[in-house]
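QA checklist item 7 of 12: single-chain prediction sanity check.
[x] sequence parsed
[x] length recorded as 636
[x] structure emitted
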Amino acid sequence: MQYIYEYDIAAVFIILAVMINFYRKKTLSTRITVIFNVLLLVEGIAAAFDALGSFVIMNPTKFPLWVNYFFLIVFYLTYTAIPLIYFMSLLFSTDFYRKNKLLQRLFIIPYAVEFLLIIFTPLFNTVTYFDADLNYHRGFFYSLLYVISAIYLIASVYVSKVFGKSFSENQKRAVTFYTIACMVGVAIQAIISNLMIVCFLSSISALIIYLSLENPANFVDKEMDIFNRTALTYTVQQNIESKKEFSIIAIQIVGLNYLNDLLGSKAKTQVIHHISDLLQMIHKKRSIFRYSSNRFVILIKKDETKKNSIIENLQLAFDEPFRIADSTIPLTLKITHFDCPSDASNIENIMDLIDFSLTDITEKDSSIVSKADTNLLQKRRRENYLINTLKKACETNDFEVFYQPIYSISDNKIVAIDTKIFFKNPELKTVTSKEFIPLAEKQGLILQIENFILDSVFDFIAKYNIQEKGIETVYLNLSAIQCMQEQLAINILNKLNKRNIDPKLINLTITDDTVINSNPLLYSSMEKLIQKNINFSLGNFGSGFSNTYSLIKYPFTTVKLNKEIVSSIQYDSKSLNTFKHLINMIKALDMKIIISGIETESQFNISKQFECDYIKGNYYSRPLTEDGLISLLEEI
């Protein structure tokens, strides 16, 4: 019989063309792409050996019998493997693969049967055989090969329909085309037995499959020609599923985002290309990912020596400033690193730890390299949750103002109140201002919150006429952002006038670091408010940026000493002497003193001993609601 094997030759060229194009493009190494590599190789071998086998069968006397069997066995082993490989490529794309490890092994059994039938063909004539005259014949189990292939084809269609929710329409069409092509090819070859068309149609299917694969461009950062964040997510998830141990080296290049404004887009592009070249010199290209505009990730197999070497090379590479034309561009490098799965074991934690640790080292840490702190995950997630909750609370004014009595040591009674704000959340319960106010400032929510505080406190004063209940002063805190508002004085005075509240009842507290960072608008606002008999106090003095210059420059009438001062003087003679001189200095400036955070009788006695004016703290009373404060004042 004369076989028409030109279609097999065409199939080989189609497979070669697909392979060349596939390898030429930057393709992320995934289970699917690895299996597709195998599929291309197997289809190419099958087509080549089908053509060679046809030629040998047509010329049986020119070749030894073992050569005939060799070509046929290789062809059938590879050809029958194609449906299995295609089926597995679909299976690996679904959640079904991750959840059913046992069934994965069972899927190999049909092909194992085919494999044995093909291997033992020379001994038992199971699939094909040659008679005494070297004529080619099909064995008893020949049809079984096509039955098993049909099982894999049907299973492929089933997987794509039932489990392939994430499949694109192109992938679904590829499954349908592949199934139809295989069936048509078998039918044609059954009718025209000398027409070797099955491998040709299979190669066309491979081309369709290639076109249905996820576009490699989706994984590549076009600006730097390295893999992007999507590719990183895919690779990390694959490593997690394979239970591999790996390390993450996260990099932030401080200053990169400002290059466009400073030097223009052309210079920025040059710097970015230079950075890309440097990173690829330090480590292989396929393990480098652009995480965001100025952040990069290097993913390596867990190896402490290799990780340290990469970090050291990164520092050396960025030690010298970049030079573009006549410009010198200093870029600061920040590096954080951690191991998986010991530090982070799932994709969410890994990606969050990259974000949080780079933000943390950039904002707070002066060092270039640091080990990622896994505690950041909980801390930052709480912050993010707080921010979202704060935004909702601002929309509904879901806050509550509490009032803490201030006790006069000389008068032996409550003469003032300090204000604190809380907001309650069903999951977080009560959140203190110390935790959420800094976040509100960063998110631009602080003015809205402080307007709520002013309105709530002034409404409370007007409602209960608290001067008649012995309250001489109400202390209100001002944030740094509020102090920078040009309309600060007008806003406060309008609110007071609206409620007919005597301004001399109000004392506005400004912290020392706010004074240092504020502009001249603060001093102007203070003068306007002082003219209306509103007083000011310097808060949290004795910690952070505290300095005597603030006491001298600004017209404060009261100083609130930080509670840590009182806590420390009980155990430290140096602190005791410092405290003594601090008290004397404030008194010499004719200012009143409030000691915050008095918790014990011993602390109260110390405050009394040094003739401080006022105290506040849980020793006397915790912060109270409006009703709680009024009840306390009425009892007294």
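[x] summary fact logged: The chain has a mean pLDDT of 83.
[ ] second reviewer sign-off
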